[in-house]
Predict the 3D structure of the following.
Amino acid sequence: MAQSIRHPFSGLFRTGRIVLSSLIALCALGLTSAAWATTFYVSPSGNDSHDGRAAAFVSGTNGPFRTLQRAAYAVKPGDSVQIRGGVYQATSGWVTDGTASGPITITNYNGEKVIIDGNGHTIPSDKDGLLLQIFGDWYKVSNLEVRYSGGSGVAVHGYHCTVTNVYAHHNWAAGIFITGWYGLVDDCQASNNSLKNEYAVLPISWSFGISACRYPQYTTIRGCRSWNNWGEGISTFEGYHNTIEDCVSYDNMCNFYVSDSKYCLFQRNIAYFTPKNMSQSYCTQNNISAGDEKFNPPSSDNTFINNLSMGGERNFAIGGKCLNNTLIAHNTFVNASNTIEPSEAACVYFFAGTASNARFVNNIVVQDDSESVVMISHLETIGITFSHNCWSRLPIAGSRGTGDVIGNPLLLKTGSTLPGELSPGWFRIQAGSPARDKAIVLSQVTEDFARTPRGSAPEIGAFGISDGISTLTASAAGSPTSGRSPLIVNFTGNAGGGTAPFTYGWVFGDGGTSTSQNPAHTYATAGHYTATLTVTDDSRMSANATVSVSVDATITSLLAAQIGASALSGEAPLAVSFSGIASGGQAPYTFRWSFGDGGTSTDQNCSRSYATAGNYTVTLTVTDRAAATASSSVTVRATAPVVTVLSANGLGSPSTGRAPLFVQFAATAGGGSAPYVYHWGFGDGTSSNRQNPAHTFSSAGTYTVTLTVTDARAARTITRLSVKVLPTEPNGKKKTDQSRRIQPRLILR
């Protein structure tokens, strides 16, 4: 079963892009996006306020970004993002489109190991979320490790995108999947994904290691490996014209799965189960399974050729309704097991349904006597044409056909069949095989598994004859193999036997790799390393050799840490800007601050505000690439502000007069801590919060006016003054001498 994946753009049609007239004008001048291409850098010790244009901090804002998301915001067509080695615990979504002439590249820096990590399945918090999502077109993503996602690992929704050498493992849901058109997933690995279905707890909707799914077209999964996933290892579903080729998938619940697919090409893949694998006791294990879940589209016109399969309850299982115009040819299927229930096991298994133009031709089907309880074939489908197959024992009547050969095909069976070690050469046939020269020529299958031309008298099965081919061997050497870091080692690799030409793959043990036959590699850090050479010949047989390398630490100046501070004392609240300085040791450095008040930071340069008076010990710890540490401390003294006693004065003018009496009040304050808050109570039930209010007393009487002043520290002082209002003179007349009399000013104390 395939996982139901939430697509962020579900229900939307892809629309054409609007091209700005200015870009058209530039193209008319013969300029491309590459002319302005920028390389951005991301580093665990970077800062998103940097410009991202340097691999390490230089000065000011010139330095790497801290997060992938910041780089995603910055890129434009033709740009490259190079990620420094380290662990990144955050999600990122990339929406900017690249172009055919200016794709956007996301890769590691200088061979360093980059890990995008979900922090124990907590990032993202949404189980349908992803650690890395590509929404834009024309991307090249490579050389990453993506692990422990709270949802899935990597999703690519854009068109014309490639994912190369990405290892996705231990993710809650899917490892890697691609939904866009014209995509390529190449040389990737996936293991221990779909942990939500660990021990097969879900009846439906489990996930997969690697998949092209949810309506991709013309997309290819090539040269990938998938193992120990609690779901499908490698799959394609709900798509058209997709290809799975040259992949290896083993010990998953289902190794390969093709569903709801038209025009799928499935070729040169290896599928196998090993005894006592992790999911053996929990499910019926299919090596290669094809069947429709939604019939959207209904499967048809698919091709399964030159594949190798061994073990599991079913080597090949397909639904009868999915076989229209389907060719199953030149495959080698070996030994189904009876682990769960013998009645459900068969080397090749055809479910119920009616097929049209379905052919099962030129295949080797082996079921050794040691597994005689398991059927060599199980057939419920009507309408399949069987012919020219080699059966190790007589199949049921409906599976027999013209040109069949009944007998032991004499497979070489050389080499290990342990997990991860099964070689294609195990499935080769010997010169005396009854399958030799007994196949019919098929125009759709012109080469064998090793891409050797089949000729006019081809062999049944995935391989041609192995006459004169000796066992492939590999040898490796390095010089020097010990010394101080940085240690440059010159490696040499050689192949013997096998079938030329050969390809070489080195894994140096420190995260670095090479595909050169004789590479040079620099070990920057002290330690003991095992460099592994894998040689693959033209028939995809492989052999390994190793070289041990011992690197001692270089004698350098001791790592030192130094703190820069804008101020070390002052009145609270005290704001201090800190800068971290590292020297000696082995760059790059990481920084960790402890501010003495419980606060911390991992930025190189940071700031802190001390709100309360006290002495605070600030400690900076610097760690270098070799995990050496150095610390430095300073003391910040935040003092209590000097506060004088709060005082206030108020006055009113006039202070005496006949009603209605208009009085202008004024207040001043000193001491304490500004700013001040003023409150006047006029004694007649009214009040004001203005510093200098005016008030009219309408009735005769003596009024006590109260001024309350409060400062920033909530200190308070109260002063009072008296206003005397005389009755209005009868008939509204006023005494001339009284009306002109100057009233004395009342001073509050």
